[in-house]
Structure formats: C-alpha cells, structure tokens
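Q&A log
Question type: sequence-to-structure
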Amino acid sequence: MSLKEKALEEVLEKALDQKNNEIVLYNDDVNTFDHVIETLVSVCEHSPVQAEQCAILVHFKGKCTVKTGAYDELVPKCSKLLQAGLSAEIV
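Response status: OK
Response body:
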C-alpha cells in the first residue's frame, strides 16, 4: 500500500468515526409553545423563527430533529432540554 493510499484510508476512517448524531425532540401534552420556543432558543441556539418552526413540526409530526453534531457536544444540550421538562433523546 502506498503512502497516499494509507493517508486516504486514515482520512476516511476519521470521517466515519465523526458521525453526526441528532437530538430529537418529541411532542408532549404538557409544555406550551412558548416554553418550547424559549428553551430551543437558549439551549440549541436557534433563532426565534427556527425554534417556532421546530415547535410546530413537533406538534404536528410528533417529533423533530433540533440539533445535530458530535455526541459529546449534544449530551449537555439534551440534558438541559430534559431538565426544562421537554422530551428529547440523542439518536
């Protein structure tokens, strides 16, 4: 195997290891639209419009991906969503 092929193989392996995960927010009958929107703005750094769109999708579709990224970066955000009383998980 040439040095070039070995380097390409290493780059591909790293790309596969850095798979993005998602925080999925689920619908519930407890939280208000305002609470969901405010929480998405503060925790997930959404714009108010983006947070409102996610809240509408969650309401009508039952779930919505609200953040993607590396698992280690998503854990604290998902924990904050759960602490705020929202239903969410990392997939």
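Response note: Strands lie at 21-26, 63-69, 87-90.
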